[in-house]
């Protein structure tokens, strides 16, 4: 099994981060990855380092489009 670990600096722009992850998934697949791991917080800035900050705009449900796009990419 070939595993790829993705590490990158995420921004406050969910769509930009989503696109970056999709690009990394595509690159990983083209290099034979069977499993790709992303950071635990990869669609937003790493907000846990800022206690008390309102991060509700980063909430994503399982049926959100971004999750659907990731699922499709993993096909």
What can you see in these coordinates?
This protein has 75 residues and is mostly helical. It has one domain (3-74). It is built from two helices and two strands, in the order βαβα. It has helices at 14-30, 65-74; strands at 3-5, 35-37. Strands 1-2 form a two-stranded parallel sheet. Helix 1 packs parallel to helix 2 (65-74). The chain is globular. The mean pLDDT is 89.
Quick tags:
75 residues; 2 helices; 2 strands
Give a quick rundown of the structure.
The chain is mainly α. 36% of the residues lie in helices and 8% in strands. The chain has helices spanning 14-30, 65-74, and strands spanning 3-5, 35-37.
Set out the fold topology.
Elements: E1 3-5, H1 14-30, E2 35-37, H2 65-74
Parallel strand pairs: 1-2
Helix pairs in contact: 1-2
Instruction: Give the number of domains.
Output: 1
Our measurement of the CA-to-CA distance between the termini, rounded to an integer number of angstroms, reads 17 Å
Mean of pLDDT: 89
Indicate the multimeric state: single chain
Strand order, largest beta sheet: 1-2
| Total strand segments | 2
Overall 3D shape: globular
Q: Structural class, judged by helices and strands?
A: mainly alpha
């Amino acid at each position: 099994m070939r595993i790829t670990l993705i590490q990158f600096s995420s921004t406050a722009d969910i769509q930009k981060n989503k696109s970056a992850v999709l690009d990394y998934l595509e690159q990983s697949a083209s290099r034979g990855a069977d499993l790709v791991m992303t950071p635990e917080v990869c669609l937003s800035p790493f907000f846990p380092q800022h206690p008390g900050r309102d991060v509700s705009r980063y909430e994503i449900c399982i049926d959100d489009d971004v999750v659907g796009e990731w699922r499709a990419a993993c096909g």
